[in-house]
Design a protein that fits this description.
heterodimer, A: mainly alpha, B: mainly alpha, Rna Polymerase Sigma Factor, Chain: A, 9 helices, globular
Chain lengths: ~220, ~200
């Protein structure tokens, strides 16, 4: 520790003096810990959840210990919601909880769906026995006509013929007005311009200005005559 | 490392191996920072619980004792700051409740006198009293250092770690640890001079 280390001899001496004081202080090791201290520490740790629930659960699953898996899930819950643990540990525990919830939710949904199907036998046959085709059967000739156009699109013979033509007819009017307003006004002014350009009435006045014939036959002959 | 792996795999009892092996050293580190046996045991217990909780975060690239020593130093320094500071008592106001006589006959606060009382069976009470007084001054000076000098100096001299072990435990380069150590010692000397002049 010389000037090569960046310290002057005085600083090096002060560093050595401080180090000596620390070494004298560290010479006092204090009394040995109580024999019960290790047991107290393990008793305190017994109330703590496992530090790594993910790896603990994996190890329990490998060794096929259901109780270990359940304990790891419980520890993951406590670690994820508890305080004083690193964020990474809490995040991994939260992921474990999330995976368990998703798995339980999926399994529960499957069970509920299976139970529903078992208790409510086949709601799908009802469209096959639907009464709606029956009014068309008395029609006789209409019966084979209506299902055939709809059979390629859907397998529902009763409801679809009533609904499918309607969108086709509604689609036509909706498309028409969009083009009609733009097309209709344009020809109208051109035709209206025609009458305004026609000064036909003014030319028809011309015969009225020709009142000379009025003068010709009547008055001119009377005063003159 | 095998015990740590076993604990992470769900074997809680494997941690008892680490406790049995490292408890004396951890308690010693806490005592050197705190200067009181009861406080040192409490701090050591807290250090083991904190290490147990943070075990998945341990990188395992150094000895376990270096890692838990760093935890113990931090907990001890925090406890030392939370503790009531040592006050020399006026001789006229002795009531015997919170004070006691140290081996040198001086009235001191009880928690400071505890360190001296632990060594009361020594043959030279006067020398022990001087050593205890100097140790108290050194502890106060160390606690007043800023980080990272305080942690580096404590790990080197109170936990007995080498520079490479400190570098691994703290995740710093060895050159940085040496710089922190030398600058920390220089600042410690300044604090020691100030405290000794004040007393």
């Amino acid at each position: 520790m010389t000037e090569r280390d960046g310290f002057t001899p005085d600083e090096a001496a002060r560093i050595s003096s401080a180090a000596a004081a620390l070494e004298r202080t560290a010479r006092d090791e204090g009394p040995a810990p109580r024999p019960e201290l290790a047991r107290d520490i393990m008793a305190a740790l017994a109330e703590e959840p496992m530090p790594a629930p993910v790896s603990a659960m994996a190890a329990a699953a490998r060794s096929r210990r259901p109780s270990g898996v359940l304990a790891a899930i419980r520890d993951a819950w406590r670690v994820a919601l508890g305080a004083g643990r690193p964020v990474a540990v809490r995040a991994s525990s939260a992921l474990v909880i999330l995976a368990v919830v998703v798995a339980l939710g999926g399994a529960g949904g499957g069970v509920v769906a299976a139970a529903w199907v078992a208790t409510h036998p086949s709601p799908t046959p009802s469209p096959v026995v639907s009464p709606l085709p029956s009014p068309s059967r008395p029609m006789g000739s209409a019966m084979p006509m209506s299902p055939r156009p709809m059979s390629p699109s859907t397998s529902m013979p009763t409801a679809m013929p009533m609904t499918s033509p309607l969108p086709k007819r509604t689609a036509m009017p909706t498309g028409m007005p969009t083009s009609m307003p733009t097309a209709m006004p344009s020809p109208m002014p051109t035709r209206s311009a025609m009458p305004t350009a026609m000064p036909m009435p003014t030319r028809t006045v011309a015969p009225t200005s020709m009142s000379k014939p009025g003068r010709q036959p009547g008055s001119s002959h009377q005063p003159g005559g | 490392m095998r015990a740590v792996r076993a604990v992470l795999d769900g074997n809680r009892d494997a941690f008892a191996v680490l406790v049995e092996r490292d408890l004396p050293a951890v308690t010693r580190v806490c005592y050197r920072v705190l200067g009181n046996a009861a406080d040192a045991e409490d701090a050591a217990q807290e250090a083991f619980v904190a290490a147990y909780r943070s075990l998945p975060d341990w990188r395992g690239d150094g000895p376990f004792i270096a890692w838990i020593s760093r935890i113990a130093v931090r907990i001890s320094i925090r406890r030392a700051h939370q503790r009531r500071p040592v006050d020399w008592i006026d001789a006229a106001s002795l009531d015997g409740q919170d004070e006691m006589l140290d081996p040198g006959g001086r009235r001191v606060a009880r928690h400071f006198a505890g360190a001296a009382a632990d060594a009361a069976d020594a043959t030279d009470p006067g020398r022990l009293a001087l050593a205890g007084e100097e140790a108290a001054v050194v502890r106060d000076a160390l606690r007043s250092l800023e980080e990272p000098y305080r942690e580096t100096v404590a790990l080197r001299y109170f936990a007995g770690l080498t520079v490479p072990e400190i570098a691994e435990a703290c995740g710093r380069p060895q050159g940085t640890v040496k710089t922190h150590l030398h600058r920390g010692l220089l600042r410690l000397r300044e604090r020691l001079d100030t405290l000794e002049a004040a007393r």
